[in-house]
Amino acid sequence: MSGTWLGMPAFPRNAEAALGNSRLRANLRKATHTIRARRAAGVDEMPGWAKLRARGAAVKDAALRDLDKHLLRAEEAVTTAGGRVHWAADAAEANTIVTELVKATGHREVVKVKSMATQEIGLNEALAAEGITAYETDLAELIVQLGDDLPSHILVPAIHRGRAEIREIFRDRMAAWGRPAPDGLGDDPRALAEAARLHLRERFLASKVAVSGANFLVAETGTLVVLESEGNGRMCLTLPETLISVVGIEKIVPTWQDLAVFLELLPRSSTGERMNPYTSMWTGAAEGQEFHLVLLDNGRTGVLADEIGRQALRCIRCSACLNVCPVYERAGGHAYGSVYPGPIGAILTPQLRGTATPLDASLPYASSLCGACYDVCPVAIDIPEVLVHLRARVPHPPAERAGLAAAGWLLDRPGRLRAAQRLAGRLRGLVPRRRLPGPGAAWTDTRDVPPVPAESFRDWWRRTGGEDR
Ligand code: SF4
């Protein structure tokens, strides 16, 4: 796949193409089932999970309610600690800020810690347009970058790739980005990890500028927090002379006590681990290092204004909802056409980007509304509720609107409904049993049309002595 989401068709077309790829489905099934089983075990052994989950949701809601105050408090704390804070209203402004900051260092390379926010704004592409190369250092992101691919999962961006594919990517592409893959590289996971480690180590030691995101920003001290499991984040955050962190404004938590709740919720929900392997925290600029914090809006204040949709901003990007979603498991992440795939993507992307394109308008329908995503979400985001809410917002085809208007007219008066039921009973022989014509055809592709009864329930009730109303 080419490395861009631009111009992708609507979700059903993307999903249909993915469904034909049996290897992709096998990779997805194996990976999501493994992670979901680990999560279930990690959550089951934790007493008081439901209370912790409710606390997580409450903390996020409170933080979002007073977002302006918390952000100003964080800005003051970061500035006091020697950092500089920049405010970016949208992707273009954030990209310009980061590009200018990198240019000012005189360097043409940056190392990156895995960051959804920078992918959301297309930072790598913006830097490339100015002659600056961004090197991804998370193993899965490295695989995606070397393969000129796109991420398909929040936590495991290369979840759609098997071991043999990764070996081929390393063999063919590593040399173009730095240290080549070792001769005779096999597809054993340890050998692949070692090849990546050697390749990346050279990059860490050479790079003077790093770009990161953050999982959390603690308002009371202006402390940024990154959770990761490979140690690449720690290398990026500590070695370079200049560190630039691009952070969505919803990542704020008011206090350290609030942060503690998420340090328990996140690892168990994402990987099933009791504790995260590497948790890096920093406040302002370290000695000998320049630090810039770019606070990113890019549609978030618009989401905040929507009473139902705003709960999507609670998301801590654990990816638990992806791993239990029957639609994601079959369609894969690329079908969602966004850096945010799966159930959270289906509610976040149309709110951040709007619903003007066929792809974005189709996302609220990329769900069976089974509710599994809500059950596992550590911050209790009612994803089905937001999906239904967004479905009412997207443009509907004229035939659907006309059909629903006719149904409204019919159901508005009992007399009309009774007359329509009697007419349908008389004409039931004319109703096709297998496939409806026109707009109903897609619905009956996989379903039989229910038979129309000769007599309605209301007529039967009256005929058999029930009270008429
Ligand atoms: S919506 Fe909930 S389950 Fe899904 S990634 Fe966000 S926090 Fe995790």
Automatic annotation (TrEMBL):
Record's keyword annotation contains Metal-binding: yes
Q: Which GO terms describe its molecular function?
A: 4 iron, 4 sulfur cluster binding; metal ion binding
Q: SUPFAM superfamilies, alphabetically? A: 4Fe-4S ferredoxins, NagB/RpiA/CoA transferase-like
Keyword list (alphabetical) reads: 4Fe-4S, Electron transport, Iron, Iron-sulfur, Metal-binding, Repeat, Transport
* Residues of the Lactate utilization protein B C-terminal domain: 395-464
**One biological process term in Gene Ontology:** lactate metabolic process
LUD domain residues are 73-287
Coiled coil segments of this chain? none
Respond yes or no to whether keyword Repeat is given for this record.
yes
Report the residue ranges that make up the 4Fe-4S ferredoxin-type domain in this protein: 312-381
Show the InterPro entries listed in the entry: 4Fe4S_Fe-S-bd (IPR017896), 4Fe4S_Fe_S_CS (IPR017900), FTHF_cligase-like_sf (IPR024185), Helical_ferredxn (IPR009051), LUD_dom (IPR003741), LutB/LldF (IPR004452), LutB_C (IPR024569), NagB/RpiA_transferase-like (IPR037171)
Entry protein name: Iron-sulfur cluster-binding protein
Give the source lineage, highest ranks first.
Bacteria, Bacillati, Actinomycetota, Actinomycetes, Streptosporangiales
